[in-house]
Amino acid sequence: MSRISEKIRYVGVNDLSKVIFEGMWPLPFGVSYNSYLVVDEKVALIDTAEAGFAPEYLDNIRRELCGRKIDYLVINHMEPDHSSLISMIREEYPQVRIVGNAKTVPMIKGYHGIADNIHVVKDGDSISLGESTLTFYMTPMVHWPETMMTYFNEEKTLFSGDAFGTFGAVEGTVLDSGAVLAGRTDSRTDTFEAFRDEMRRYYSNIVGKFGQTVQAALKKLSGLEISRICSTHGPVWEKFIPQVVSCYDRLSRYEAEKGVCIVYGSMYGNTAGAAKALAAELAKRGVPHVLHNLCTENVSYAYRDVFLYDTLAVGSPTYNNDIFPPVGNFMRGVCARLVKNRKFVAFGSYTWAGASVKLLNEMAAGLGFSLISEGLSFPQAFSSEKCDMEALADRICSEVSPC
Ligand code: FEO
After folding, report:
1. Is 47 in the pocket of ligand 1 (CB under 6 A)?
2. CATH level 2 (architecture), domain 257-398
3. Among 46, 62, 189, 368, which is disulfide-ready with 193 (CB 3.0 to 4.6 Å)?
4. In this structure, are residues 278 and 262 in contact, taking their beta carbons and an 8 Å threshold?
């Protein structure tokens, strides 16, 4: 369904072919690149789509416009998943006036070589399409410096860019009253529940570093009455706006549920043995937990659950007198995302000299994490005698939840 309201039409596309987003993040359910038309006496197109979808995207626009022209192309965000088709739109509709802010202008020039017929807007500026008014709010670093949001005053609709977006292509209707996560047909879950894990993964992977600026944007938008959120990824939110805004608010405050995210890498199974033993002890005590092996899965899922639980347990063998590289990469990502307010414990095996636990503790301390213990560094093979996971689970349990 392309008609969101009489004046708002969905012209986005689903990408079920791309395997890895931004060259890093898996897409088991695909992703959507959302774009919208606002049709009045004048016509505005809000953002575009990914380069590989030019014919389908153009067909969507032509079908809705029935020969009418586009007057304005509003660029809320210049990341190429939304801006790749600016040149094509300019070729198809040569009169179109591009609307962006001062930070957008050099990016359009750099990516597309376009420097003319650009209408530069500032925070709070508006354009009229006839009976419809679009007002622009600068929301830098949600997700890039040029990001802004567009508010359709008369319909209380926020075109939010990446904010409130999710991974996962959208099937059925794009509206959250009936949208279905691609490849999932479980009708027992509502749309927010169906997309929630992919929303958290999207936020933690893509936007996770920018909690402070997301909070600033939420504060700026708090005075607006919003009855519809049209993000660039995932469903159009109407019914579940309170849940979606609350989810983004909690994520950007780094608020987490009680539970343990266990993340580890292992060369020969010894650090893995410790990780699995910890998981088993937590399970016995009824402590919520997840287990991520960085040697067999993409780090994307570990980041998702770093944002889910309030305790992080990280296992790494010592490798070249350092942290095992997959775990070091993960921890650098945790640092880059400026994660806050977590309890932390490290563990790992070594053969002749232990370094990983000490180094992991230093990284955690740099983030202000509270260390549950000095960590468990053990020589050679894992055993319960060398590495007392029962005691560690008791300690975690006393902090995380009553056992
Ligand atoms: Fe979906 Fe930051 O682009």
Report:
1. no
2. 3-Layer(aba) Sandwich (3.40)
3. 189
4. yes
